[in-house]
Amino acid sequence: GKSGHMNLAKEVFEKLPQPNQSEYTTIIHCYGLNGMGIQAIELYYKMPKEFRDEGIYISVLNACSHSGLVQEARSIFQSIETKTEKIYSTMIDCLSRASLFEEAQKLIDEYDHDHSPSIVMYTALLSGARNFKNTDLSQNLYDRMVKLFPQMASSLTSAAVLLANTYASSGDIDKASNIRNKLHKLGQKKQMGITSTVVNGISYKFRASDRTHPRSKEIHAECEKLSAELLQHGHQYDSSWITRPLNEGETIESVLSTHSEKLAIAWNFVANPGALRIQLTKNLRICEDCHRATKLIAAIRQCEIIARDTNRIHHFSTDGKCSCNDYF
Ligand SMILES: [Zn+2]
Ligand SMILES: [Zn+2]
């Protein structure tokens, strides 16, 4: 029911004797998409309380947001016991759409107090500022984002585009084209990450998600195996190390577990299953997720891994530590 089929969806839903949790989520989500915030809220209060989870909260808050029901969103938000990053982001989006920027900023501060800052929340606020052509707030936010999230190239690029649009829509064409020119130059300079490794005397190069190697199937299978072992040993994939939008069928794990560093490591284990020593060279700085994962892999597989990047040489030893002491 994502467009004009709302009435039909509603009819079908009302005939369900005992809708389950995902049916409630779907119908509330549909109400939201169709600007039927009131109906979404009514159903939210009627449904069994034990069904309320992150998905329901996000759907109902979104429904409020798209119908401008800020007060209703506030009271639902306040009643939620465990507020996740996504729930905060949805509420911040709701406030930003209503140009309640100070209140949105307060929520971000509240979240940042006990968590590492989330670029999604800043982006929501920045989009709100763009909608209301608030150039001062946009510039401030963008400057803070650059300081807080220096690694997140693609999110920062989107933020810069938003900022340029804000200037353009408020009539400051010079500033807008300045930013766009800078972006253009950056785009041309941006280098692709490549990891090379020497296996049995031959040098191989890998890009992220690379499938050009003749034994790619085995290499990707080994990546999956390594990923399962990593998760078993407490590794957590952190979406903030993803620097581009996900394609369909991709997950945070599938993207991070096939970074060039990890593919190069996997190829070593495919070619030499009992490898005791692996050497890698990366043309950029090694990414944080790969650094954490490589420490664990060295310990799990009892294999010393030496990785040279643009800044230094990392010796990952079999006790799960790196010579850089995580300072890189
Ligand atoms: Zn990586
Ligand atoms: Zn290191």
From TrEMBL:
Q: Which Pfam families match?
A: DYW_deaminase, PPR
The domain of life is Eukaryota
Which InterPro entries does the entry mention?
DYW_dom, PPR_At4g14850-like_plant, PPR_rpt, TPR-like_helical_dom_sf
Instruction: List residues of the DYW domain.
Output: 234-328
Tell me, which GO biological process terms does this entry list? RNA modification
Q: Name one GO molecular function term.
A: zinc ion binding
Identify the PANTHER family for this entry: PENTACOTRIPEPTIDE-REPEAT REGION OF PRORP DOMAIN-CONTAINING PROTEIN, PENTATRICOPEPTIDE REPEAT-CONTAINING PROTEIN
What is the name of the protein in this document?
DYW domain-containing protein
| Record organism | Adineta steineri
The major lineage groups are:
Eukaryota, Metazoa, Spiralia, Gnathifera, Rotifera
